[in-house]
């Protein structure tokens, strides 16, 4: 069974700090990597995707990918209380027929 | 239009009832998905349709029956469900199967009594 692992948290950071969320995956053949944000009682929302090694920045969000280490991370700069949510790491894999496998999610709390 | 619309938003059904969940998108996406999500758990894949054909069935019990009438619509027919089937049912779509990330609908909160 191909797996995506995340620290369930909760991760608590003060307002204005950098929140760092981490994810590891087991399928070395994975090609596409995604971060979704899910507020309590709502559906997931895609916030970042990354395909190549290195960093990808979008506003306050930076996704980092290291395929050799099978590691994906999401940095949130200048964290705001409205960033408090569960962040799901998702990985696409050709194994088993082009599936997207979700990690269990990391709960983030940003304290005002 | 950048939305996936799911109806109904809430559904309570008895174990002998038959009901259907509906999902619609007009973004030209050719892959559509049903996921089940229990509280504090990640979404769990149920079915994948790619170009209106069933691509993946994750060994879901036959009391769940998917249908894709056309490229914009996806249904999930429910029959003889169990209380443990109570969950948030999420529809999602993407440009192609397992590509470019998903757009999720707001979900149907299902309670089986």
Describe this structure in words.
The complex is a heterodimer of chains A (112) and B (113). In chain A, strands 2, 4, 5, 9, 10 and 11 form a six-stranded mixed β-sheet that branches. Chain A has a five-stranded antiparallel β-sheet with strand order 1-3-8-7-6, with no helix packed on it. In chain A, a hairpin with a 4-residue loop joins strand 7 and strand 8. Chain A has strands spanning 4-6, 11-14, 19-25, 32-38, 45-50, 54-58, 61-66, 71-76, 85-93, 99-102, 106-111. Chain A starts with a strand and ends with a strand. Chain A has no helices and eleven strands. Chain A has 112 residues and is mostly beta strands. Chain B is an all-beta fold. In chain B, the strands form two sheets. In chain B, strands 2, 4, 5, 6, 9, 10 and 11 form a seven-stranded mixed β-sheet that branches. The mean pLDDT of chain B is 94. Chains A and B meet through strand 4, strand 5, strand 9 and strand 10 of A and strand 10 of B.
| Global Rg of chain A | 14 Å
Determine the oligomeric state from the structure.
heterodimer
Mean pLDDT of chain B: 94
So how many helices of chain A? Answer: 0
Helix/strand/pairing category of chain B:
mainly beta
The profile of the biggest β sheet of chain B is: 7 strands, mixed
How large is the radius of gyration of chain B? Answer: 13 Å
């Amino acid at each position: 069974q191909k797996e995506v692992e995340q620290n369930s948290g909760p991760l608590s950071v003060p307002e204005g700090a950098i929140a760092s969320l981490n994810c590891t995956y087991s399928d070395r053949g994975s090609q596409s990597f995604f971060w979704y944000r899910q507020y309590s009682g709502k559906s997931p929302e895609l916030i970042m995707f990354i395909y190549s090694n290195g960093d990808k920045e979008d506003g306050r969000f930076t996704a980092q990918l290291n395929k050799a280490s099978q590691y994906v991370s999401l940095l949130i700069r200048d964290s705001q209380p409205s960033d408090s949510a569960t962040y799901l790491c998702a990985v696409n894999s050709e194994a088993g027929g082009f599936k997207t496998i979700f990690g269990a999610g990391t709960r983030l709390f940003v304290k005002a | 239009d950048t939305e996936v619309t799911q109806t109904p938003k809430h559904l309570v059904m008895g174990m002998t009832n038959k009901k259907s969940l509906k999902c619609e998108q007009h973004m030209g996406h050719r892959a559509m998905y049903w996921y089940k999500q229990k509280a504090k758990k990640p979404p769990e894949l149920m079915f994948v349709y790619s170009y209106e054909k069933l691509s993946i069935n994750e060994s879901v019990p036959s009391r769940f029956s998917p249908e894709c009438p056309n490229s914009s619509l996806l249904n999930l027919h429910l029959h003889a469900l169990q209380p443990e089937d109570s969950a948030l049912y999420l529809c999602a779509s993407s440009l192609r199967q397992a590509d470019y990330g998903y757009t999720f609908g707001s979900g149907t909160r299902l309670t089986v009594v």
